[in-house]
Write a structure and sequence with these properties.
By secondary structure, the chain is α+β, with helices and mostly antiparallel strands. Helices cover 31% and strands 12% of the residues. The longest helix is centred in the middle third of the chain and has 18 residues, at 74-91.
Length: 213
């Protein structure tokens, strides 16, 4: 039985649908990108980030984008987190881990009554509402309402064992440090002891991980 999902979704311009290393896209929706090839959809469960690619081709594809690739600052990341928290409080979904990086988001989400693809779409929408409401949308200069700052689709892996969830949560928690950023703590992330997951933190019982956003 599926217990949860590890999902990754990107900001605009980070991982193109025809990325040489593979993507989760089935089509290229922008004419300016189509000349760099068709979609490179892959169903692999492993990361393809380490695969070889042509840097010059990648740079040319990014230069052809209609808008600058989005790269969040800290203020924008916190606004997105508040948007996520809004949706979590309304929907009752369980977020077990979350890392909001400059160009993509990692989350571990517990099983829910709706498909994880719908959950992610609604998380994206809630984040966008917050960015606009707080006046920090990264593409605000390009129109009102601004163009979407998030990419279509998501990468997902279903987790059907407790050990899978623990491993995925650990990966997400550690992900910011791989980009030279501090570990993140968000109020919408449930303490793992509350959902029956093992923890090596002797101070975790009864304590929420994170702080209000």
């Amino acid at each position: 039985m599926v217990l949860g999902s590890h999902v990754i979704f990107c900001l605009y311009g980070f991982w193109l649908p025809n990325e040489q290393r593979g993507s989760w896209s089935e089509f290229v929706g922008a004419w300016e990108l189509l000349r760099f090839g068709r979609a490179t959809k892959t169903d692999t469960r492993r990361s393809v980030a380490g695969n070889r690619f042509d840097p010059a081709r990648k740079a040319a594809a990014h230069a052809a984008l209609r808008y600058p690739a989005v790269r969040l600052n800290g203020v924008q990341a916190r606004a997105i987190a508040r948007g996520f928290a809004d949706y979590v409080s309304q929907s009752g979904i369980s977020v077990l881990a979350c890392a909001i990086l400059p160009q993509h988001v990692h989350m571990v989400i517990g099983r829910h009554t709706i498909h994880v693809e719908q959950v992610v779409n609604q998380l994206k929408a809630a984040a966008t509402r917050r960015l606009i409401a707080e006046g920090v949308h990264p593409l605000a200069a390009f129109g009102s309402p601004p163009p979407r700052c998030r990419a279509r689709g998501l990468w997902k892996v279903f987790l059907d064992q407790q050990s899978d969830i623990e491993r995925a949560c650990g990966y997400v928690d550690d992900n910011p440090t791989k980009e030279g950023l501090p570990r993140q703590h968000w109020s919408m992330v449930q303490p793992r002891v509350e959902i029956g997951l093992r923890t090596n933190d002797p101070n975790a019982m009864g304590r929420r991980r994170g702080f209000p956003v």
